[in-house]
Specification:
The chain is mostly helical. The protein has seven helices and three strands, in the order αααβββαααα. The protein has a three-stranded antiparallel beta sheet, with helices on one face. Strand 2 and strand 3 (77-80) form a beta hairpin. Helix 2 packs antiparallel against helix 4 and helix 2 (29-44) runs parallel beside helix 6. The chain starts with 9 loop residues before the first helix and ends with a helix. The mean pLDDT is 93.
């Protein structure tokens, strides 16, 4: 049985990010990584596996583009990012606590063990933060942020008086479908 997607409210996301910021060890790299990962998933609707597979050279800071090279079914796509998202990723990549040097081929999301952040480690940190945020059950999963992103984009179309049907092909491409 598949669990129904859960839409995450802005208030829940704020609590989730605050709880991630307080992950042990306090002020450590783990918290920085989980906060940045959650933020990226929230604002882009990326799959967690796509985010964890990113290399430093996937971020074009000058043009505000993030290139997903290894999307589902091997598809690639370019995601335009808000300047604040570009800045957050750039700060994460250049963070003084970063355990591995930020070269073009190094992973964006790095673990304290000087390797790519694994899905299991990311999931554990995300789950711990969701529990600490005391978000009512069912607790959100990373993939729920993808659903939340899609719904919020369509709701914005309605609010702006635009045709949501016209937006669907664009949204579908952005999400890598």
């Amino acid at each position: 049985r598949r669990r129904q997607p859960r839409i995450v409210s802005s208030e829940e996301m704020t609590r989730w990010l605050r709880a991630a910021h307080d992950l042990p060890p306090l002020g450590g790299w783990r918290a920085v990584s989980i906060v940045t990962l959650l933020g990226l998933l929230w604002v882009t609707g990326m799959r967690i596996g796509e985010a964890l597979a990113l290399h430093v050279d996937a971020l074009d800071q000058a043009h505000g583009i993030l290139t997903v090279v290894r999307g589902k079914f091997g598809k690639s796509r370019a995601l335009p990012l808000h300047p604040s998202t570009v800045q957050a990723l750039a700060c994460y990549i250049d963070h003084p606590m970063r355990p591995i040097q930020a070269s073009a081929a190094s992973p964006i999301f790095a673990s304290t063990r000087r390797r790519r952040l694994s899905q299991a480690a990311a999931q554990a940190g995300i789950d711990t933060a969701a529990r600490a945020a005391e978000i009512s059950p069912p607790r959100p999963r990373p993939h729920d942020l993808r659903h939340t992103f899609a719904i919020s984009r369509l709701a914005a179309c309605y609010a702006e008086g635009r045709d949501p049907q016209a937006m669907l092909p664009i949204l579908s491409t952005y999400l890598g479908h």
